[in-house]
Amino acid sequence: MTNRYDLIVVGAGPTGLACATYAKKSGLESLVLEKGCLVNSIYHYPESMTFFTNAELLEIGDVPFVVHAEKPKRVDALKYYRRVTQEYSMSVRDFEKVTSIEGKDMDFRVTTEDRFGHEHAYSGRKVVIATGYFDNPNLLGIPGEDLSKVSHYYTDPHPHYGKNVAVIGGKNSAAIAALELFRNGADVTLIHRGDAMGREVKYWIRPDLENRIKNGEIATYFRSNVVEIREKEIDIVTPEGRLQLENDFVFALTGYHPDAGFLHQVGIEVDPDTYVPSHNPSTLETNVNGVYLAGSIISGRMTNRIFIENGRFHGGQIIPDIVATLERINSRSSR
Q1: DSSP letter assigned to residue 124
Q2: Which strand (E) or helix (H) includes residue 189?
Q3: Which of 9, 121, 205, 312 has the fewest other C-beta atoms within 10 Å?
Q4: Do residues 134 and 256 touch, judged by C-beta distance below 8 A?
């Protein structure tokens, strides 16, 4: 067992790192655990991605995020969060997946497994879970979804030049992927179960996509579902009936959800329909005393409610409650 920490943060995304900065300012010793690399979700965003928001709204720990462009890109964010980690001298153990959280308030044992299969254990008084949802895609549940040509994450258009590519989804990620793939020489088919692209599609992206659809440059099937994926084809059901389309690659960009199984393992109650975990909206403490939630994991399936812009402030709710609790305990023990 290693040193005992005041706080163990599970997840080294922007929200988890922000919680660690709040802890540092309050004099708490914290440890951040991450199963991937630092800000792992951002690292897996498309390489050319530009954030929809400005740099100031992504700042944490009062560290300025300075970029020359109006909106930061993925590479800018990676550099920025490395800088925050360095400036706060954070203790981050990346590539360690948390396998269990046991114990009770003021005496938790967090067990991890590193990429070589070695087990590690850490002791903490309090725990914050800030694991987000990006690692858990909403599966289609259809034959062929496990083929290597299927991905739930879009990264780069280049390998798909000259290929028949299906993009499944109706939100920003699907719209951006379809446009980038088209402009880089892919033959793109967009498939969405709704009547039109979702309202979430940004206003400067929507007209571009609509014009590509209108001109027949991106084949589109609304009110349609992919029902089977094979090596060289996909089958879709449309209002006009079932169709078979030639296909080389599929991007199933159908959204993501929190890891409810992990939360259940910790003892946190989760609504079976919404996936919203039980928590105090003021302090963000769960029904498990001493375990808190931060970031988008709080919103369950409603992943469009919490982003970096508002999740970065959750530490401002959590840390004062932890500090007050520790002060009460210290006060009683000193009597």
Answers
A1: E
A2: strand 187-192
A3: 121
A4: yes
- The strands making up 225-229's β-sheet, listed across from edge to edge, are 225-229, 233-238, 241-246
Give the gyration radius of the chain's Cα atoms.
Answer: 22
- Cβ atoms of 226 and 145 within 8 Å: the answer is no
- Judge whether residue 3 has pLDDT over 80: no
Token pair for residue 11? 């997840």
Q: Which residues contact 322 (CB under 8 A, 6 or more apart)?
A: 6, 7, 23, 26, 28, 126, 292
Tell me the residue type at 312.
R
* Residue-range domain boundaries for the chain: 4-136+256-333, 150-252
For the domain 150-252, what is the CATH superfamily, name and number?
Answer: FAD/NAD(P)-binding domain (3.50.50.60)
Whole-Å CA distances, 278 to 103, 291, 293, 298: 19, 11, 9, 9
- The continuous run of DSSP H or E covering 42 comes out as helix 40-43
What is the tens place of the pLDDT at every residue in 250-288?
A: 999 999 988 999 999 999 999 999 999 999 999 999 999
Percent of the chain at pLDDT > 90 equals 87
Tokens of 212: 């590509």
Distance between CA atoms of residues 176 and 131, nearest Å: 25
Contacts of 97 (CB under 8 A, 6+ apart): 35, 112, 113, 114
Run of H or E including 264: helix 260-266
CATH 3.50.50.60, applies to 4-136+256-333? yes
